[in-house]
Amino acid sequence: MKQVTLGFAPTRRSIFSAPDAVKYAKLTRERLHELEIDFIDIDDINAEGLLYNDEDMEKVAEKFSKAGVQGLFLPHCNFGTEYVVARLAKKLQVPVLLWGPRDERPDEEGIRLRDSQCGLFATGKVLRRFQVPFTYMTNCRLTDPEFERGVRDFLAVCNVVATFKNTRILQIGPRPFDFWSTMCNEGELLEKFNIQLSPIPLPELTRAVKEAMTQKDEMSKVLTYCRENMNICIKENELETVVALKVAMKNLTVKYGCNAVAIQCWNELQNELGIMPCAANSLMNQEGIPVVCETDIHGAITALMAEAATLDDTRSFFADWTVRHPDNENGELLQHCGPWPISVAQEKPSIEYPLAFDHPGAVAAQAKFGDMTLCRFDGDNGEYSLLLGNAKGVEGPYTKGTYVWIEVANIKRLEAKIVEGPYIHHCVGIHKNVVPVLYEACKYLGVKPDLYDPIEEDIKAYLRGEN
């Protein structure tokens, strides 16, 4: 899994028990270590290792900035100093996790030592005044299951935000002429989200493929991988071109500092190389570098978000919404020519000829069933949203390419969402329920979460720590 580093800034207020706040900060540190959470501490800032004044806040901000923390964890170990933690959060501009341990019963004399919950109410108000979005983890004990779940989900949220805000996509060729649906506003993506494109023409890719052919060791390694993990149903020279394309795309991704690729997969590429790029895309996807078809920039962004929501431990698949299931009234076929990573397949995939094209180089396999998240980042007229929801894989007729039949709660409702926009016929699927993580991440990104099922209250309940 991807390692995410938190800035750990426990806080107290002077009129409540400082020793008890120190005690709970220590207990929280121990619990984070037990859960193997990576964090930068402030125990060197002052003797208590707590945040409660502006002078220390400046030192903490400098330390966290230098460390490059991706999220800020603000345990209220007693009431807390709400204006100091709000100033820190405003300076750092990273996702914020607000939490405090449950208070004990008052002692026999009616004395309360911490009032952590009351402080959380105050800090929530001040963070809103500072216009700082934050994630709230319910007031619970360190040993409660909702504590571990909440921290781990927050790490995933931080990973989505960091990935989204540091995205650079290698754009290989313009979109195919016929695909007006995949056009994007490059300037707007940069201005709104800092998402950058690195466009290159197809001849540059062709040169990179020729150069890759000379990298004998890398070529041999990828050829061996293909032969061991796939059924090879194309000619040897065709397989070598597929592998050279994969090596070339990886080299170009590194050269231009990109974390995803959008490729004009047809039809000029076939004149240049004589193959379909699907199998090469599959190999890149399996390595955790999303490659999407038809120069769909928004699709590449979606794939990065979906995988980041799993802390990069699960591969996604890029698909077309295609046809309704012939027998299941809420079923749909997700399919594409063959770019899906092999870890998605429920069988040994083949490299062969795709549906509707005469050139070799597509992967064929049915994807695993089970629970999935389906999502799509897209925008119209300057407004961006993330369509997302749940689905499950189901039985259905055989078809060519990489495919899976899925079932949703209400296909007609989903169909209307896609047609009415701002979405298109492309989506990203992943075999994990990351809907709550993506929903929560949207508040930090300026993107509207758009659920295709009426489950918003269920998601909020989950995020609150309810079962």
Overview of this protein structure:
This protein has helices at residues 18-34, 54-67, 82-92, 116-129, 145-165, 186-193, 202-212, 216-229, 236-255, 268-273, 278-286, 297-308, 411-420, 435-445, 456-463; strands at 5-8, 38-40, 71-75, 96-99, 135-136, 168-172, 196-200, 231-232, 260-263, 291-292, 316-324, 331-336, 350-352, 362-366, 370-380, 383-394, 402-407, 426-430, 448-451. Helix content is 40%, strand content 21%. Helix 2 (54-67) runs parallel beside helix 3 and helix 14 packs across helix 15. By secondary structure, it is α/β, with parallel strands linked by helices. The strands form three sheets. A six-stranded antiparallel beta barrel has the order 11-12-17-16-15-18. It has a five-stranded parallel sheet with strand order 2-1-3-4-5, with helices on both faces.
Task: Give the helix/strand layout.
Blueprint: E1 5-8, H1 18-34, E2 38-40, H2 54-67, E3 71-75, H3 82-92, E4 96-99, H4 116-129, E5 135-136, H5 145-165, E6 168-172, H6 186-193, E7 196-200, H7 202-212, H8 216-229, E8 231-232, H9 236-255, E9 260-263, H10 268-273, H11 278-286, E10 291-292, H12 297-308, E11 316-324, E12 331-336, E13 350-352, E14 362-366, E15 370-380, E16 383-394, E17 402-407, H13 411-420, E18 426-430, H14 435-445, E19 448-451, H15 456-463
Helix pairs in contact: 2-3, 3-4, 5-12, 5-14, 7-9, 8-9, 9-11, 14-15
